[in-house]
Amino acid sequence: MLMQQFEKGVCDLAGLSQWLAQLLKAHCAPMRDRMVDHMVKQVKKGIEDSSQIRIVKGLQELFAILETMKLDVANHQIRYLRGVLIEETVHFEQKYHLRKIARRRTDIDDSRSWFARHESSCTINEYVGLDNAPASDHTRVLTSALLQTLLSSGSGLNFPVTFALDLDRLSTLRSDLHDIIYEEICCEILSLVISHMQHGVEALSSEKQALRGRLLDIVGSAKTWARHIANIAAEIVRSALQISGSSAEFENSITPCLESRLQRHLRPSSQLFKKHARQLAQHLQPSLNDSMTAHLGLASTALHDSLVPTAPPPPPRGYRVPVCNMSTGETEAKLSDVTRRLTHIAVLHWHIWGPIAYAYKGSKADDAADDRGAGDAAGLAVSEAGSGTSSVSRGVSTELSHTPSPSPPPDPEDCSATSTSGLKSTDTSSLVFRQKPG
Q1: In the prediction, which pLDDT does 372 show?
Q2: How far is CA 8 from CA 174, 393, 431, in A?
Q3: What pLDDT was estimated at residue 323?
Q4: In this structure, is the dihedral angle defined by the CA atoms of residues 111, 116, 121 and 124, taken in order, positive or negative?
């Protein structure tokens, strides 16, 4: 009937838009009423002016309102079902990934080879192999492999497919770790410049920490160290002159040489970077192992509450957020934060993929192909322990605290694989959903 009215030119668009407005206001959150009123205003203005452009804009706003309502409902459900979604994360992901493995849409041979390579090179215990070793030894292989891959000198993240949902978080961690290494390189160069200016004078830890803060302010949130070599060199020279007690404000003679040295060392392929990367890995490995052991036995909800900090309240209107929120933080606080975030990823990864890809008899690279069936059977046994079908992946449970990672694409043959982690985040604290009128 509506199409017939359009064809005959007798459709009352103004009345239709008013009816739609009443219907939308009955079901959407009150904070969306302004959008609905603006849509009605656009349609009425288009009718009065005989403007098809305004009417089309009104229809576009109508579809935008419907999309916003869908996101509001999804975020509302995520907020109030948060505990259930987090608790079912491991069971859902295991069932989802095992289904893809069974259909040969995911090949985990590279993941097993990746784990076996690090297992062979890891000298953390006295066992000939890890077939009968305690679970903690297997997890130490995982943490060692994570650190070595994050601190590698390669241009990208060389993680296997089992880390597909964690690549965004791992990329952020890699960037933070590289920042810490670059800071240490700059502090080492600062000490060399000071000793060149005045023999016997050394920079205090507080002075080095102040330099780290200023360096992070220079590189900004984009953290492009290579683009700011000249500014970094100037800041190192200025700090060295101040620490050595010189009355000069700047020294042009050593700046070109310093810029050349920074250009050579502030990159992952440099020998100085590799030296500091090894030192950082040796410093982080014990604390990461201890944190992994302490959190490995926790349930999903307890793990989330322990490792995911509560989101801070939004800043007041007009408040300017600093360019670098860690510029004044201590290095140990940064390393503790890195350990916490890496522990969360490692524990979840081990709970999900340990029974499927890693923790099975004969996990060496030369036995990986023969034991594929045993590994898959172990994973299937674990996945059957979860009752019901959960429609949430790891991305939803971590979206509440960190930058969301890409969710697995929905499987066209499996309706239960639908993920909501790609939805926009909206402020659901002010959403009050009206009851559908009887």
Answers
A1: 42
A2: 63, 50, 41
A3: 42
A4: positive
The residue among 364 and 346 whose pLDDT is bigger is 346
Q: In this predicted structure, what is the pLDDT of residue 201?
A: 66
**How buried is residue 247: exposed, middle or buried, by Cβ count under 10 Å (0-12/13-18/19+)?**
exposed
**82's tokens:** 């948060």
Q: Give the C-alpha separation, 306 to 145, whole Å.
A: 24
Percent of the chain with pLDDT over 90: 21
Helix, coil or strand: residue 1: coil
CA-CA distances (angstroms) from residue 412 to 151, 223, 300, 388, 392? 38, 40, 28, 20, 16
Torsion angle, CA of 170/176/181/185, rounded to 10 degrees? Answer: 150
Q: Which residues have a Cβ under 8 Å from the Cβ of 214 and sit 6 or more positions away?
A: 235, 239, 327
Q: Measuring CA to CA, how many Å separate 207 from each of 87, 204, 244, 254, 325?
A: 46, 5, 12, 21, 19
Chain segment 194-217, per-residue pLDDT in tens: 887 776 667 677 788 888 888 888
* Measured distance CA(42)–CA(17) in Å, rounded: 10
Alpha helices in 49-159 (DSSP H): 52-80, 82-87, 89-102, 109-121, 135-150
| 435 torsion bin: left (phi>0), alpha (psi -120 to 50), beta (else) | beta
Please state at what angle helix 135-150 crosses helix 167-197, rounded to 10 degrees: 60
CA–CA separation, 48 and 309 (whole Å): 54
**pTM, full prediction:** 0.67
| 407: nearest Cα among 21, 55, 179, 78 | 78
Residue with tokens 């250009």: 263
Q: Which residue has the higher pLDDT, 372 or 422?
A: 372
Q: How large is the average pLDDT for residues 377-383?
A: 40
Do residues 277 and 284 touch, judged by C-beta distance below 8 A? no
Check residue 120 and give its pLDDT: 80
Angstrom distance (rounded) from CA 57 to CA 5: 21
Give the burial class of 435: count Cβ atoms within 10 A of its Cβ; 0-12 exposed, 13-18 middle, 19 or more buried.
Answer: exposed
**Average pLDDT, stretch 345-371?**
67
Give helix 135-150 / helix 271-295 axis angle, nearest 10°.
150
Of the listed ranges 73-82, 353-362, 402-411, the one predicted with least confidence: 402-411
What's the confidence (pLDDT) of residue 350? 92
Q: Residue 5: what pLDDT?
A: 72
Q: What CA–CA distance (Å, rounded) separates 396 from 172?
A: 18
